[in-house]
Amino acid sequence: MPATTQLQFLGHAAFRLISPEGKIILIDPWFTNNPFVPEHLWQPEQADLVLITHGHDDHFDPELPGLLARTGAVCVAQAQVRFYLYEQGVPTAQFEPLNKGGAVEIQGVEITMTLAFHASHIDLPDGTAGHAHEGVGFILRFSDGAVIYAAGDTALFGDMRLLAELYQPTVALLPIGGRYTMGPREAAHAARLLRVSHVVPFHYGTYPALTGTPDELRAHLAPTDGVTVHALKAGEMLPLEKRQ
Fold this sequence. Notes:
Elements: E1 6-11, E2 14-18, E3 24-27, E4 49-52, H1 64-71, E5 74-77, H2 79-87, E6 103-106, E7 109-123, E8 129-141, E9 147-150, H3 160-167, E10 171-175, H4 184-194, E11 198-202, H5 214-219, E12 228-229, E13 237-239
Parallel strand pairs: 3-4, 4-5, 9-10, 10-11, 11-12
Antiparallel strand pairs: 1-2, 1-13, 2-3, 6-7, 7-8, 8-9
Helix pairs in contact: 3-4
């Protein structure tokens, strides 16, 4: 088991975490025919917990019911996404229901569902869109003291300062592509509001419209901000820092 919490960037907006107890957590897994995730990572055989921020198809694998059945993982999802998965036959017992502002401890990890500002839907098998909803984010607190804020797709919002006051995150996963989410300028200010010392950017460089870059994010941060930007490659691991 790892001595500290480990973060793996799978690609685009998907992450894998390994807790100090060896529990495997997937955030917004999208594997099926995903050109941005290395193919050898497409079929995870082990997962203990799956977190879904919203139902857009670049965050929500259409084969997620099969992944949950194969691994037996507990799922925490935005409410309308959870209801859709019920309809797809995922047993209700495999979910931990949660809503914005609520918290629950699962397998040694304290999870809080937070606000996000991002309109979303689920692409249905018949080609239509349904289950309209707003996205969410998550705060994850681990037994080694690491606290991660997984923002999901979101705009910048001022109450990020409340997340800093309440949860004291050490690392923030922030979208920086722009157009559909925060861009680098907004993400830099988010890092300041959150008072984190580490940012892992995502949701950039994969589609032509997502033009924000880690270098632009760094340019909007001052040395006095004390923020390190980790531009991880798909498949790369990062040990998470705990709050001193």
